[in-house]
Design goal:
The protein is an all-alpha fold. The protein has ten helices and no strands. Helix 4 packs antiparallel against helix 5, helix 8 packs antiparallel against helix 9 and helix 9 runs antiparallel to helix 10. It is flat, with a radius of gyration of 31 Å. This is TMPIT-like protein. Keywords: Membrane, Transmembrane, Transmembrane helix.
């Protein structure tokens, strides 16, 4: 009996001693791991700084050589054909720098106040190219989903107005739709700002356009929905806006289908970067532009018409609230901005095509002279 008790006491002291040794060993291992991790982070930071300096120097040298080639051609010190060949080589080097993993070490665009307001002072620049491309694909997926909803919601409201609501919109469904528009434009603006930070070529106007649309959706939430009497006249602006939204949904579906296919082709040919996106009137071959441009111009004209109609209803005293005036002005601003950007893109496309034709004709003449 006594021997058994002594044996148990010895076993307990042994197990306690093992636990103490294991705890001490784990503490030492955690310290060693922490020191190893700190050393690795320090080495990575030094290598990161070195690669960043090399990337900045290379980017600066490419820009300097481009400027030198352009000035040499203007002064007549460099042959045009030779200059074009050198510029093409520099473009390849610049493309490899901006599209490869080395692009991580180039300075990124400013995050802007909008991102800082919603997300705070955090870095949304992805270090890996595959992560950046996932951000772009998620943006496309979000646009695809919302395009169908953009078409469905106003169609449903117009059908319910004529079939169920006796020609008069109730306030709640319209305000729910306006709240959804506020969410949509805010989400698009956030995603587009993040894409710009990660190297996308989205034009600033399209982001500003969504800022205006956000403001209009927010203001319209405070807009009292007038009812009887004379409900049809007082709600005419809402009807026209919903019809414009249906047309906008159709245009978004066409853009998502046709223009993206063209962008993928341009990326494969090296004429566009992998982080570039299509929005508004960008991209598209001749046949697609003949289909899309009339729809875009009609949309812009109809958007301006709805804005003018809202201002007229305010001046005539039918609905004289400040929300009506503000929404009308915002619609006109967005219509004019969209039209100006569409025309600007068309002019740019025509200049690029003219330059390509001119270069092709020069090369044909050179080949003919060689054959002779």
């Amino acid at each position: 009996m006594g021997d058994s008790t002594a044996a148990d006491g010895g076993d307990n002291s042994l197990s306690v001693r093992n636990v103490v040794e294991q705890v001490s060993r784990l503490v030492e291992q955690s310290k060693e791991l922490q020191e190893s991790a700190s050393g690795l982070i320090s080495r990575n930071s030094q290598e990161d700084a070195s690669l960043r300096q090399r990337a900045l120097a290379l980017d600066s040298n490419i820009k300097m050589l481009r400027s030198f080639i352009d000035s040499s051609v203007k002064k007549g010190n460099l042959d045009t054909k030779h200059a074009e060949k050198l510029s093409e080589e520099l473009s390849r080097a610049s493309y490899a720098l901006s599209e490869g993993d080395a692009a991580t070490f180039l300075p990124c665009k400013s995050h802007g106040r909008f991102l800082r307001m919603f997300l705070g002072p955090i870095n949304v620049r992805a270090n890996r190219k595959d992560v950046q491309l996932k951000v772009k694909e998620e943006y496309y997926s979000f646009r695809d989903r919302t395009a169908y909803l953009f078409l469905f919601f106003p169609s449903l409201l117009l059908v319910l107005r004529s079939q169920v609501w006796d020609g008069c919109f109730p306030a709640l469904p319209v305000q729910l739709y306006q709240a959804w528009l506020l969410f949509l434009y805010t989400a698009l603006a956030l995603r587009e700002n993040i894409l710009r930070v990660n190297g996308s070529d989205i034009r600033p106007w399209w982001i500003y356009h969504h800022y205006c649309a956000m403001g209009m959706a927010l203001i319209s939430l405070t807009w009292e929905i007038e009812k009887q009497p004379d409900c049809a006249q007082k709600q005419k602006g809402i009807q026209l806006f919903l019809r414009w939204a249906i047309m906008q949904g159709v245009a978004m579906l066409l853009q998502n289908r046709y223009q993206r296919q063209r962008l993928y082709t341009r990326i494969a040919l090296g004429k566009a970067r992998r982080m570039d996106v299509v929005w508004g009137e960008t991209a598209g071959v001749k046949g697609q532009l003949w289909l899309l441009l009339p729809i875009l111009f009609i949309l812009q004209a109809f958007e301006a018409y709805v804005g003018v109609l809202l201002l007229q209803t305010a001046v005539a005293g039918v609905v004289s609230e400040w929300q009506v005036v503000t929404c009308g002005i915002l619609l006109i601003i967005m219509a004019v901005g969209n039209f100006a950007n569409t025309v600007q893109t068309l002019v740019l496309k025509s200049r690029v095509k003219a330059k390509m034709k001119k270069g092709k004709s020069k090369s044909d003449l050179t080949q003919v002279s060689k054959d002779q």
